[in-house]
Amino acid sequence: MTHEAAAVVGPETDDASPPAAGTAASGPGTDPAAHLRTPAFRWLTTGWAATNFADSALTFILAIWIADLTGDPIAGGLNFAMLGLPALASPFLGALADRVSRRKLMAWAYVGGAVVLLPLFWVKDAATAWVIYPVTAVYALVAYVTAAGQSGLLKDLMPDAALGHANARLATIDQVFRVAMPFLGAGVYAFLGAHFLVVTTVAAFAVAAVVFFALRITETMVPPTQRVSPRELADGFRQLYAVSPLGGLTTAMTIALASVGLINGVTFAIMEDLGIPNAWLPPMLVLQGVGGLLAGALLPRMMARWGRARVVAVGLLLAAAGLGPVPLGLVVPTVIAQFAMGFGLTSAVVAYVTERQVVTALELQGRTGAASALLLNFPQVPVTVGAAALLAVWDWRLIVVVNVAALLLCGLAGLRVRQAAPPAPEPR
């Protein structure tokens, strides 16, 4: 598959002439990492940072908030399920992202994200805590719009050889917020309350919207000559299984990330059993962010040396190692092991996403990205709900052991998947 580079300019100017097909935009030379220094990508990372602040500020706090208001740890665990529910809209979002400006679609999604959070100011007590559930679902929908649009934007922005570097850079930004926000978010929640966090999240969404409205990039879109058909919606799913090794990696990642719903469903039960306050959850997971941060720095070299398929498999095995100490009920080993969990999951997700982008044509990026978002996220919803229900008959330790076993099996299965061809050289 060939990649035709699009003309890209920064927000400070709107005029640019497209380069010849197959040439690099903005003259970054032959070094793939040089594409990360173009004005457009720098502007994109600014919007990505604002988006990640908005995404990470409330993800854990909303679950903690509803658990505290209701006094029910299961209620908090079920809120994690609401984060995966919007994945059902992914096929439609993917078709839309391939037909319209992905940049504008994402910008308007951030405007919507800011507006949908406003009902949270009505939440005061257990009687109004139910409002958090629908708000969480729509709040999470923004991330699925981003997943549908971001893949195509990056593919338009740079050649295939630079996609691994770009995804690793964006993952690094993700993990910076994963490291910083647990302390900041937990501190703000404890001393200033959840409503102050809602204000800052609304502001972050507003900043992201402004950045993406200002970004200038020549985009590849499918002309809307007909209504969206079921076949068009299914094109993304077909692409995931049409080429090797993407099909095998998709199966392994789908099962592995679905199994993570088990730990999500029993998280607050674990903390209650260990006598840990709910507000301590984000700081306890900070080493996940540190592990992910290191993964972001090393991933371009890892993918170049081992191949993306092998990185996915090793990442899932490391994630299993990160969950291994949890059933022991020992706080310190559990917290330390979160480093492996963060490194492993970040590595697996970034390598998988890069493989998907590289083997997928530009006009299919939105639908394929949305299809993978559905497969990798929605199964967590019933698994999370099922894990919470299983607490009535199973000890949480057994549920976590099942999660560890699933990750191990998926990692081992991933080792049997072979890269279809040697990975493209990625100069250091």
From TrEMBL:
Gene3D superfamilies: MFS general substrate transporter like domains
Keyword line: Cell membrane, Membrane, Transmembrane, Transmembrane helix
Keyword set includes Cell inner membrane: no
Annotated localization: Cell membrane
Signal sequence, renumbered to the chain: none
Membrane topology term: Multi-pass membrane protein
Transmembrane residue ranges: 47-67, 73-93, 105-123, 129-154, 198-218, 239-260, 280-299, 311-330, 336-353, 374-392, 398-415
Feature: compositional bias, Low complexity: 16-32
Region (Disordered): 1-32
Protein name stated in the entry: Na+/melibiose symporter
Species of provenance: Myceligenerans crystallogenes
